[in-house]
Each structure stands twice: as structure tokens, then as C-alpha cells.
Amino acid sequence: MKAFFNALTVFFILTFALHAGEIRLKGKLIGADGKPMAAANVQVFDYKTMGDPLVKLVTVTKDGNFDFTLPSGASYSINFMGANHDALYLNMPVHVDKGEVEFDVKLTAFFFAPYPEAVSVYSNVTDLYTPMEMKRQSDGTYTIDINNDWSDTVTVKVNGFTGYFNAVVPGVGEGIKLDEDGTYANYFTKKGLISIEVDPSKFVNLPQSPYAELKIKSGDPVLSKIVQLTYEFSVNYITGQVPVIKSDLEGFRASDDKNLKDFYLSRLLVLYDLYRYVDVKEIPVLYKSLSTDSPYWQTLTYQIRDFMKYIPHNEKTDFLTELFDKQNDPLFRLEIINYMRLAPSYFTEAKITEFENKYKEIYKGTEYEGYIDGGGGYYPEGDPDAHGGETNNLGVGNEIPDFSFTTIADSPVTYSKESLKGKYYILDFWATWCMPCMEEVPTLKSAYAEFKEKGLEIISVAVNDDLKTVKSVVGKNKMDWSISFLEAGATGDKVASDFNIMYIPHLFLVSPEGNIVAVTDQLRGKNLAETLRTYLQ
Q1: CATH number of the domain at 7-109+208-221, out of 2.60.40.1120, 2.30.40.10, 2.40.50.100, 3.40.640.10?
Q2: Cβ pair 277, 241 in contact under 8 A
Q3: Which residues pair with 519 in a beta bridge?
Q4: H or E stretch including 337?
Q5: Are 263 and 93 in contact (CB under 8 A)?
Q6: Which CA distances in Å does 451 have to 162, 319, 474, 510?
Q7: Reduced to 3 states, what is the DSSP secondary structure of residue 354?
Q8: What is the Cα–Cα distance from 420 to 221, expressed in whole angstroms?
Q9: Is the peptide bond before 505 cis (omega within 30 degrees of 0)?
Q10: What percent of the chain clears pLDDT 90, i.e. is strictly above it?
Q11: In 3D, which of 323, 299, 268, 331 has the Cα closest to residue 94?
Q12: CB of 90 within 8 A of CB of 29?
């Protein structure tokens, strides 16, 4: 989320009846100067469908009015865009049966101060994270041509001023009115050569405000509350304020409406995953309150791995089976399968294959059928280059790959598979910037104190980190087991590939024979000591 978040205020009388499973949003888009915005639109993306496609492009009228309906049962990113202004992004799940709400949106303006030597453009046609330098023309404008030979939709952002701003692309913008000064929040459809031009001399600085404001005017109580809470979450996200966490917890406990209660709950679980703001002790209680048929699970796609550690080992398969059967989102179902592939100690190969075949049968003949490759990722079949080749499912029963890790101690020691033969040992891939990794330090410390006399070795390998920081953290936390540091580059990439490290912390318990006997989830929290007692009596 790079956007600053802005405000909504609405004043229209809703006059037509909605169909079941449909919501209506209408209101007025206002600029930082308090005037209605004519050069503006509302872009709606569907986060429920793979690829986040554009669902609607709503052109704002010359009076600043917008009015549109959306199907319920999806998670939308509703983006309010206007010339010379930052966008308001509302990432909002919509699962009410139907409802209407009125609001105004007042966007916050950019402050423009050109840096002529460093004007660049970003586009999804090339790479949204890699800038392309624009050429300065004799008239003071900046131009660049890019070729779109593959994407059905194009986004453009130009950087080189105090903030991001939007460029004009002549001759495109279906259904979009361009502002008089030639700037615009651009989302359009165009194939072939695209010419982009920026004229800094035409920018006018408008009154500044820290972020947009939102004010609900009228509408369905539950939907209005969800819109308001989504906005507040956006503002708190960029300002880093914690009170929204506390208020969400209070709202969850106080609400009698199941839809609103699930909305609060899903946000709390996302916030826990992102920031660990919610007390860890409350998470098992919270997530168990979300029934497996709740549509709000679809907002938790990337949290499923984290929450599975709270499910007892003997209940994981039944829980995932029920969740898979009751959710209808292909991306969410893929993440369930991906989790199973990355935790082979909990699931038999036959069970994983059963889930894969069920997925293929459900989505047979659809665009989603090819997104299951049997190797642990969301990549179309027949495209191994999309994820660097075949995925290595390294789990319980496999032989540990060859390795050589040298400690950062004053008297370095090099460990290898051969030198550790005859011992039980843990390989722990971690980083100082990884909060879940640091949460495991006390657990590892306790386990090492209990089992080192029984021959246990722990080698913690810091990845994608700074050596000086690693040494400082190790000293402050009295991590008295073996610590190694993995340099970034080809060596680090090879280790990540050999050990199939897709996330951290990532741990392996290896037997004296060099075989993996337990992996990450069995080696975190209270599970670590229980697992070690099984092998080290």
C-alpha cells in the first residue's frame, strides 16, 4: 500500500431497489480545494479472483458524483482516483446480502517540487518496481515510449517529484476524462506503443492535508460500518497507530451481527500476522470463532500457514478438509494445498494428491485448472521458469542436503552433513528482522539448555541479514549455540533452493543418520521440547 488514505462524505437519496447479493455505493468525489472533481474515476478490483482483475471503471461526473453497484461475496479494492491527488484505497470485503451506503470522498493533494535530473516512470507493462528514466525535452516536458505487447490493462506512475503523481497518456483512457493540465490517475486499455508525457510547469500546488477524510452520510448500518472501519484501518495503517487494534477487539466482542463480527475477526487475524499486535494467547480463541463456512476466510489466504500451528496435529487434516470443501475461492484453496506441500510431516503424499485431484476436478475446464502444478506454487502447468524450475518438497523422511556452514564465533567452526553424522541436530534458518524468528529464540535457548548434554547441536543460519546486526542480536540474547551467517548472492540462492526455504523461520531436526525427522511446525513453540523428547531420552 503506497497510497495515503482519504475521506468519504455522501449526500444522495437512494431511489431504486437492489437485488439480493448486490451492494450500491454512491456519493461525491471532492478535491483538496473543496471543489468537486471532474477529472477522476473509481477503479474497482476484485481480490477474490486470481490476478486481481479490474471489475469496474466508474467515471466521475463533472459534478464529482459517482454511483455504482457491486456483487456481494467478494473482497474488493475500491480506489478513488483524481488528477493531482493521491488515491484513497479501500480494501474491503463485501459479504452482506445487500445494502446501500452514501458517502463523500475528499482526496488529499500532492505537493509538487520537480527534480529534473531524476524523473522516471513505473508501469506494470515492464516492472512496477523498476523505474525507467524519462527524457527531458527542450520545452521542459519529460517523455518516454513503452511497448505493451502482452497486458490487457496498463497502469502508469511517474516519480521524480516529492511524491508520486500521474501522467497523461495521449489518445487513451477509455471512458476517462483527462484534466486540463494533462495529468491523470491512469488505468487504461491499450496495446502497442504508448507515449507518456509529463509537463511539470502545469502542476498547481493545492491545500495540503495529511490524509483523506471519510464521513458516512446514510445507508445500511452494517455496510456503512464496514466502509467506515475499512477507511479507519487505511488511515491507521499508514500512521502506524495501535488504537484500531484495540477498538477492533472491542467491536468484535460487543457486536451481535455475525457479518460484522466476522469482519472484525478477520482484520484482527491479519493484524496479528502482520504486526503481532494482538496478544498471542488470544489467537487460538479468536480464530476458532471464525466458522469454516465464513466468507471472511477469503481475506486470510496468506495467514493460513500461521494459524495452522494452533490446530492440534491430529486435527489438521479434518480441519483443512472442511475448510477446503466450504470455501469456494480458488486462490484460498490453492494456499491450503500449498501449505500441505510445505508440511509433509503432517500429511501423507496420498492425502496431498487427494486435495490436488479434488481441486483439478472442481476447476476442470476453467482458467484456474492450470494453476496447480504439483510442486508448491501458483504457477500454470508447463511453466517451470515462472518459479525457477521444479520445487523441492523437502520434508520428513528425506535425506538432508549437503551443506557447509561456518560459525561467526571468534574461533569459527565449520559444520557439514558429514561432520554432524552420529548426532541429532537442528538447522534453523532465521533473520534478525523476522519477528516470528525472534519469538522462537527463547524456545531454542530453553531447548538447547535441556538437550545439549544429550548431544543436541543447533546451528542457526542467518539469511538476508546484516552481519554486524546478527552479532549484536546474538550477544544481547545470549544465543550460546552455533550461529552461522549466509552471504546473499549465488551461495545463498543455492542454499535456499536446496533446502526449499520459501519462508522463515524454517527448521529441520536431523537424525544421526542424516535424515529429516521433523520440520518447522513441529519445532516451534512448545512443540519443540515435545518433539526433542521423542528422540532424545
Answers
A1: 2.60.40.1120
A2: no
A3: 508
A4: helix 330-342
A5: yes
A6: 56, 33, 20, 14
A7: helix
A8: 63
A9: yes
A10: 24
A11: 299
A12: no
Pairing of strands 98-106, 22-30: parallel
Q: Domain-by-domain residue ranges, the chain?
A: 7-109+208-221, 116-202, 239-387, 404-535
Q: 267: burial class by Cβ within 10 Å (0-12, 13-18, 19+)?
A: buried
Contact 237, 5 (CB under 8 A): yes
The answer to whether 43 touches 57, Cβ cutoff 8 Å, is: yes
Among residues 315, 229, 316, 244, the alpha carbon closest in space to that of 274 is found at 244
Residue 161 and residue 113 in contact, taking contact as beta carbons nearer than 8 Å: yes
Q: Is the pLDDT of residue 249 over 70?
A: yes
The fold of the 404-535 domain, in CATH, is: Glutaredoxin (3.40.30)
Which of residues 113 and 302 earns the better pLDDT score? 302
Quickly count: other Cβ atoms within 10 Å of residue 35's Cβ: 10
- Give residue for cell 513505473: 122
The 3 state secondary structure assigned to 15-26 is CCCCCCCEEEEE
Q: What is the DSSP string of 195-254?
A: EEEE-GGG-------SS-EEEEEEE-HHHHHHHHHHHHHHHHHHHT-SHHHHHHHHHHHH
pLDDT at position 118:
54
> Residue 161: is its pLDDT beyond 50?
no
d(CA 95, CA 462): 42
DSSP letters, 155-199, are EEEEESSSS-B--B-TT--TT-PPPTTS---EEE---EEEEEEE-
Q: Which of 41-50, 248-257, 341-350, 380-389 has the lowest mean pLDDT?
A: 380-389
Residue at 339: amino acid letter: Y
Nearest to 486 by CA among 430, 436, 416, 420: 430
Report pLDDT digits (tens) over 224-240: 999 998 898 777 655 55
88-97, 146-155, 159-168, 498-507: lowest mean pLDDT where?
159-168
Cell 538476508 -> residue:
464
Instruction: Identify the CA nearest to 264 among candidates 93, 97, 100, 102.
Output: 93
The whole-angstrom separation of Cα 335 and Cα 318 is 16
Write out pLDDT tens, residues 130-145: 667 778 888 877 788 8
User: In the structure grid, which three cell numbers stand for residue 87, read together?
Assistant: 488515491
